[in-house]
Amino acid sequence: MSSPPEPLDISRPLRRYRIAAYVVGTLLVLACVSWALHGAGKPSFQWIWIAHGWFYIIYLGLAFDLFRRVRWPLPRLAEMLVAGLLPGLTFVIERDINRYARSHAPASAR
Fold first, then answer.
1. Chunked in runs of 10, what are the mean pLDDT values of the chain (110 residues)?
2. By C-alpha distance, which of 53, 49, 43, 51 is closest to 31?
3. Which residues, other chains included, contact 74 with Cβ-Cβ below 8 Å and sequence gap of 6+?
4. Which of 25, 48, 52, 64 sits a CA distance of 20 to 30 A from 6?
5. Are 81 and 67 in contact (CB under 8 A)?
6. Any residues with CB less than 8 A from the CB of 77 and at least 6 apart, and which?
7. According to the model, what pLDDT value does residue 84 have?
8. What's the pTM value of the predicted model, to 2 decimals?
9. 25: CB partners within 8 A, 6+ apart
10. Are 94 and 18 in contact (CB under 8 A)?
């Protein structure tokens, strides 16, 4: 006889995703501000774009990891992936994903 499977604990993957979302979102907003200042003749900080690109790749991996573990519908993954491309959207989608994960998690995993 086999025992029933343990409830899925997504607290760690969700935490990793949330941290990556905040880092990527902050870097993207800073990069856009830098770009706007560059257009106004101020010095530009090109390293912010490079940092955002590297962290976005990490963010993609962590978003896919969370998606794979919880087996959400494909539009959820698309939502998470696009969020890192538009300034400010990362913060909105992160809150939405966090609420969705908490409401769809088993009671013992919350």
1. 65 93 95 86 83 96 92 91 90 92 64
2. 49
3. none
4. 64
5. no
6. 63, 64, 67
7. 87
8. 0.82
9. 83, 84, 87, 88, 89, 90, 91, 94
10. yes
